[in-house]
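Predict the assembly for these two chains.
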Amino acid sequence: EAEVAQSPRYKITEKSQAVAFWCDPISGHATLYWYRQILGQGPELLVQFQDESVVDDSQLPKDRFSAERLKGVDSTLKIQPAELGDSAMYLCASSLDNPDTQYFGPGTRLTVL
Amino acid sequence: KNEVEQSPQNLTAQEGEFITINCSYSVGISALHWLQQHPGGGIVSLFMLSSGKKKHGRLIATINIQEKHSSLHITASHPRDSAVYICAALLRTSGSRLTFGEGTQLTVNP
């Protein structure tokens, strides 16, 4: 069964360092989402792509976060510089279209020391 | 007040019990998702619905558009059902962004 792939699964970094997360959605899924989930809370949408275009990045802290999906397939989320408050689970999801069932990847757990 | 609210926040049941988790929302929606999140973070999409009722195995999801309310039911609960269940709504006021409830932590004891 097709799955959303994410890497790395875990990342520990020091504050002020740069980190990058990668997501490969299910083949053919046009819509890709990046979420941040702080422990004990629900996921929060950071950015949504439709193919290679950003359709919603209103909650993305653009001073330090960036996201791209250059060829409309896989995507990278970057944080530079990382801050202590960025420690969270970063989830990627994809769907054929929006609205549609979203399929989530396993997530990247980030710890900023 | 959150636009999507779940209850209860925590639920403990004995194996075999019938479970109900509730979700209410404050504005019109295009669709509503029920998600399951196991320890370690993995999220599985259980249902997406915009009307009526859906069933998959021991799981049933219902939605009442007029009452702005959805329920997730688990029949013959099992310890492996222990997880956080999250309701997420595509609110008509939020474009294409899902609004998540805070989740219900379900523990099913053997």
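The CA atoms of residues 64 and 76 of chain A lie 14 Å apart. The longest strand of chain A covers residues 88-95.
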